[in-house]
Recover the amino acids of this structure.
């Protein structure tokens, strides 16, 4: 039997897409911390990394993200999430998407331009943190109770978190940093060029570059992250180089942009990378450091988007949505498609007949 005509197939496809979309939304209860630590996380907050292939370029520019929904968060001090001490510059807008292979993040924060070349702590900085081990808490970066000389992959098993930290003091805006052949040849999560590093931790005192550990280094590790940064006060969209530093005038009003990507899955064998699965939810957080009142920031002086993990959904693409549709509506739809295809088959025979007939009459051999 011949295929249903194109229009009919399009109609069928769009019907299924609409039906499929409605069944994607799923809710996951947020978990509570216990003990002295006081946290009232917004249980509604979550970030969705939609399936949108071929939309964004990893260059620090945000214009290609324009049609992607953003998720807005207040930035509260990580160690004391009190609204009175909120970051004064504004909120953080987070956007995420995936293309079936890589996941992309855009972090957007309003802030007066500040840059001091070669001095990370006098420049803004951002980090992402993900739960790896099932027991890993947001609070205390995994929350393993071991001291720095006792934490290792056995005593802290299950408390692993994965961290990406970008300090821009040596990173030229719009240029790509993170995983590079030189550091990856050494087999660790470092980035000697732009300090966009791939770390893991069991608690704040037990943090290491991927591949580096208290009980010995494993050179199978890699820096799996890539990223770039930008500020809205920059006048040029052509390439900057090192000599253009500080790229803009300090104190200019505007917005900082930090854009990152990573493969959904990595070759990590050490439980140091989060692994994303399409159709599943990961837990993460984002942090922001800003040199306030002219003072350099320090490691624990950062703001975060929540005092607990924020769910990150990685939903499937369209074709997987079609599969979710129930049997009965599939049967009704294919019955309709079959009917239409019979009608169109009949029409095509009739048209064929007309053409044939017309040809039979009008064909005139030319005599020379
Ligand atoms: C592991 O790597 C770190 C960082 O590269 C280095 O400082 C340390 O000496 C290495 N340890 C061993 C045992 O090789
Ligand atoms: C722990 O790390 C060491 C290297 O430091 C490695 O040899 C060992 O296989 C790791 N153990 C586990 C359970 O991952």
């Amino acid at each position: 039997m011949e295929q249903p005509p194109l229009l009919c197939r399009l109609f069928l496809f769009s019907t299924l897409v609409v039906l499929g979309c409605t069944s994607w939304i799923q809710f996951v209860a947020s978990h509570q911390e216990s003990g002295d630590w006081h946290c009232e996380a917004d249980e509604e907050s979550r970030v969705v990394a939609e399936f949108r292939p071929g939309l964004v370029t990893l260059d620090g520019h945000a214009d290609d993200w324009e049609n992607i929904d953003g998720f807005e968060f207040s930035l509260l001090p990580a160690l004391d999430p009190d609204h009175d001490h909120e970051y004064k510059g504004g909120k953080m807008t987070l956007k995420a998407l995936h293309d079936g292979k890589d996941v992309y993040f855009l972090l957007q924060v309003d802030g007066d331009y500040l840059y001091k070349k070669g001095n990370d702590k006098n420049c803004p900085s951002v980090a992402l943190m993900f739960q790896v081990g099932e027991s890993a808490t947001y609070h205390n970066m995994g929350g393993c109770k071991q001291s720095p000389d006792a934490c290792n992959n056995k005593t802290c098993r299950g408390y692993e978190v994965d961290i990406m930290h970008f300090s821009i003091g040596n990173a030229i805006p719009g240029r790509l940093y993170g995983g590079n052949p030189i550091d990856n040849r050494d087999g660790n999560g470092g980035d000697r060029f732009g300090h966009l590093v791939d770390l893991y931790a069991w608690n704040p005192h037990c943090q290491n570059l991927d591949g580096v550990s208290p009980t010995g280094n494993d050179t199978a590790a890699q820096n799996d992250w890539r990223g770039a940064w930008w500020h809205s006060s920059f006048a040029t969209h052509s390439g900057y180089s090192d000599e253009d530093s500080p790229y803009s005038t300090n104190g200019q009003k505007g917005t900082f942009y930090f854009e990152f990507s990573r493969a959904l899955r990595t070759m990590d064998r050490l439980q140091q990378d989060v692994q994303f699965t399409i159709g599943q939810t990961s837990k993460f957080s984002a942090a922001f450091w800003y040199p306030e009142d002219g003072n350099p920031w320090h490691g624990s002086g950062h703001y975060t988007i929540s005092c607990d993990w924020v769910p990150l959904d990685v939903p499937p693409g369209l074709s997987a949505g079609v599969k979710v549709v129930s049997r009965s509506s599939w049967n009704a739809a294919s019955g309709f498609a079959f009917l239409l295809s019979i009608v169109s088959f009949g029409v095509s025979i009739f048209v064929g007949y007309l053409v044939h007939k017309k040809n039979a009459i009008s064909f005139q051999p030319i005599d020379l």
Q: What stands out?
A: DSSP finds four helices and 15 strands in the chain.
